[in-house]
Specification:
mainly alpha; 16 helices; 0% strand; globular; Chromate_transpt; chromate transmembrane transporter activity
């Protein structure tokens, strides 16, 4: 009987790995597009979970910091095949883009092409894609004067107070403002998800999340090991990102560009390349880690930036049926999401705009690329390819 159960679990894991890898190879377009691909594959085709459970899982991923689509994928894996299912789902969806970006980082390091036109084209691609993301997020997350005011506060503080603590303070203050400024009506959703994780194990994951958050900076200051420094920076970034993959840009820029570890050109070229590959935007960390410390650095950075998301989704799933009905938590989240929009706008100005749009031709090309993705609704890889080819011929 046990042998049959083990065999069935192994078959489940193999199937989950194959399906998630297919998604990891084909899911272009960012978090919203990823969720659509997930719905088509996991809900409509495979019927591994129902519509309501899928909606609940998306709601949880929006509530937690970290990459929303990756957390949904991990959650589906956990619901389907337990903790190992979550791990397998994560590996399948994430590592195709991780491998591609590590190779791209090595190519950048061993070539003299960093200042050539196609790299500038990739930087302009980043301008158009982030502008598109800002408009989409602002429509959803800052629909009224109160949320727009929180976003404006966030823009001002981010640009005028360039400290490693500024964005943490902004997120905390915006959450407190949200508690008092926004009121949520009681939830009428009474459905429950079938979670194959015990509450005891969930508490271990949540405890580990906070312990690493507190202890890694102390360990980093007491040692000169490169991998510890990398792990600390990427773990801290992964644990502070609210609002999806695009918001990781200002935090990583603050950690690596402002502190002189990576120059702006290399940073933005990698961000543009991340748009060209399928899978989660958090795999940008693989590129940065590989630039700093080779392929080992790429793997360490990937593990570190995704670990908070993994611990939080495993730690929250068993409690989400209760948490999602807490109106005060929902109110705080409205303020935090509005602040995220402000942080993203500030990062759009510095470093993206200031280091990329240098003359009228840059602006014209950025406008064309923006129109391609926003109005013509072309696939992101087409926009990226257009940016590379246009940069090669015109810059």
């Amino acid at each position: 009987m046990n042998d049959m159960k083990i065999k069935n679990n192994f078959i489940l894991l193999i199937e989950l790995f194959l399906v998630s890898t297919k998604l990891g190879l084909t899911s272009f377009g960012g978090p919203v597009a990823h969720l659509a691909y997930f719905h088509e594959e996991y809900v409509r085709k495979k019927k591994w979970l129902d519509e309501q459970s899928y909606a609940d899982l998306i709601a949880l991923s929006q509530f937690l910091p970290g990459p929303a689509s990756s957390q949904v994928g991990i959650g589906i894996g956990v619901i389907r095949a337990g903790i190992f299912g979550g791990i397998v789902s994560f590996i399948g969806f994430t590592f195709p883009s991780v491998i591609l970006l590590i190779f791209f980082a090595k190519f950048m390091q061993h070539s003299a092409l960093i200042h050539t036109g196609w790299i500038h084209g990739l930087k302009i691609v980043a301008v158009s894609i982030v502008a598109h993301a800002i408009l989409g997020m602002s429509e959803k997350l800052t629909p009224d004067l109160k949320t727009k005011s929180v976003a404006l506060f966030s823009i001002i503080v981010t640009l005028l107070w360039t400290s490693e603590f500024s964005q943490i303070v902004i997120i905390l203050l915006s959450g407190i403002i949200g508690l008092f400024l926004f009121k949520k009506s009681p939830s009428e959703n009474n459905t429950n998800m079938n979670i194959k994780v015990s509450k005891r194990f969930a508490l271990v994951c949540l405890t580990l999340f906070f312990l690493l958050f507190l202890l890694l900076p102390i360990l980093n200051k007491s040692t000169t090991l490169t991998w510890v420094d990398l792990f600390d920076r990427f773990y801290r970034t992964g644990g502070l990102v609210f609002g999806g993959g695009h918001v990781v840009l200002p935090l990583l820029q603050q950690e690596f560009v402002q502190q002189g570890l990576i120059n702006k050109e290399t940073f933005l070229a990698g961000y543009g390349a991340t748009q060209a590959v399928p899978g989660p935007l958090f795999t940008f960390a693989a590129y940065l880690g590989a630039v700093l410390n080779g392929w080992k650095g790429g793997l360490i950075a990937t593990f570190a930036i995704f670990l908070p998301a993994f611990l939080l989704i495993l730690g929250s799933l068993p409690f989400w049926n209760t948490l999602r009905r807490n109106n005060r938590i929902s109110s705080a989240l409205i303020g935090i999401n509005a602040a995220v929009v402000g942080i993203l706008i500030a990062s759009f100005y510095e470093p993206i705009w200031t280091s990329t749009i240098l003359n009228p031709m840059d602006f014209v090309f950025a406008t064309i690329l923006f129109s391609m993705i926003s109005y013509l609704k072309l696939a992101p890889w087409i926009v990226v390819l257009t940016g590379v080819v246009g940069g090669f011929f015109f810059f």
